[in-house]
Amino acid sequence: MSISAWLxxxxxxxxTGGIYALVxxxxxxxxxxxxxxxxxxxxxxxxxxYLTWMAQSTLGISPLLMVPVSFLMLMALGxxxxxxxxxxxxxxxxxxxxxxxxxxxxxxxxxxxxxxxxSWMWGGELRGYDYFAEPVKFGQAxxxxxxxxxxxxxxxxxxxxxxLLRMTLLGKGVRALMQSPVGAQLVGIDTKRLHxxxxxxxxxxxxxxGCLLSMAYTxxxxxxxxYTVTALIVITLGGFGSMSGALAGGLLLGVIEALGMHFxxxxxxxxxxxxxFIAVLLLRPKGLFSK
Length: 291
Prior knowledge:
With 291 residues, the chain is mostly helical. The chain has one domain. The chain contains 11 helices and 2 strands, in the order ααααββααααααα. It has helices spanning 3-34, 41-58, 63-92, 96-122, 145-167, 169-179, 181-186, 191-216, 224-238, 243-263, 269-283; strands at 135-138, 141-144.
């Protein structure tokens, strides 16, 4: 393989990994802070993709303008869902184990509800649009412009969340709750405000990921579930509750999949991911990047 071919292969993996990281960050935020294993997370990514497709195809709105709109709309939806579902579970569950089990069942219900709503609303066929698909050359290598844009924006949002959690008072409160929920509440951190806000931000990030995906790939009502599974693998790689670990894990998994599919068979993509997942669980159960 030539150097340009290697660059294109690695770039393909990093672009995919950037989306993986963005989806995983939102899910990791919800589970690390509230112990909500939201397996419907990918379905809200799908909603973000369809909102962007509708805005572009019917109203001619640029997908770039839909990035903040998708974030705000899905964040607002997340606040509503937390208030209607998970806040009630928190109030009625006698302990954390029961809350996690009930939360998982609610997330299952949300997954089927959102997926069937999308199928009823938009049908089951593939949808898509052309946006900034012209190739961009770097020396001998060339890349699709929309995929480079997707990668750049995914890194921007990932970096913004990590900076928010590390550099702001809000972020310190979130990290304190992740480390010791009881201790954080004893020093006055208000979980009733932080929990719905962070759940909303998590869904907002999934909406952004869907918006970015629609710029470069076709979309369908069933597209969300594989991204939820991949996000769980990424979180396992990076360590539960670790945001920088989720970013590194997403990029690493994307590169591993790209290399594996090139040197073996593209149909083995899922197998490669699960092999990595099982290996990390057995050898480094706290994640590759946990401290």
